[in-house]
Amino acid sequence: MKKLFKTIAIALVATVVTFNANADDKKIAYRESKLNVGMYEAGVAKSLILNVMVTKNDDAKARVKLMDAEGNTIYTETISKKAGSHKLSLDMSNAPKGKYYLEIVNGASILTKEINREADSLKY
């Protein structure tokens, strides 16, 4: 009976150590993420004005760039080192229908979001 108890105890300790190691790995990967982006249409849906909220957690400049499907830059903005978060509004009402890409670069972190400009709405 003692041998069975020791075997179960060792198995339980090994399981707990394994789960804790995996949880720590996920926490580290999450903490290393330096860039978060939220997008929503201003006011009501189908406004064709896209609000973008960029949050960064380091002291590096960030660059926001809107490009068309061919890679041509339509809009660019730089977020200062000191700003932890920044909100910008992109008026897409005069842009032709098609695909656009929003690229945010913050040091080694690059985040690209696809935006589809349709007749009277934006999909992202």
How far is the N terminus from the C terminus?
61 Å
Helix share bin: 25-40%
* Computed CA radius of gyration, to the nearest angstrom: 23 Å
Largest sheet strand order: 4-3-6-7-8
Task: Give the CATH superfamily of the largest domain.
Answer: Macroglobulin (MG2) domain
Mean pLDDT: 78
Number of helices: 1
The domain count comes to 2
CATH fold naming of the largest domain: Immunoglobulin-like
Question: Which band does the percent of strand residues land in?
Answer: over 45%
- Order of helical and strand elements: HEEEEEEEE
The coarse silhouette is extended
What oligomeric arrangement do these chains adopt?
Answer: single chain
Number of strands: 8
Tell me about the largest β-sheet: 5 strands, antiparallel
Using the 3D structure, state the CATH architecture of the largest domain: Sandwich
CATH class label of the largest domain: Mainly Beta
Global structural class: alpha+beta
Which runs of at least 5 residues are low in confidence (pLDDT < 50)? 16-33
Q: How does this model look, in words?
A:
- The chain is an alpha+beta fold.
- It folds into 2 domains: 1-32; 34-123, Immunoglobulin-like (Sandwich).
- The chain has 1 helix and 8 strands, in the order αββββββββ.
- The protein has a 5-stranded antiparallel β-sheet with strand order 4-3-6-7-8, with no helix packed on it. A 3-stranded antiparallel β-sheet has the order 1-2-5, with no helix packed on it.
- A hairpin with a 4-residue loop joins β3 (62-68) and β4 (73-79).
Question: What's a quick, concise take on this entry?
Answer:
The protein has about 120 residues and is an alpha+beta fold. Helix content is about 25%, strand content about 45%.
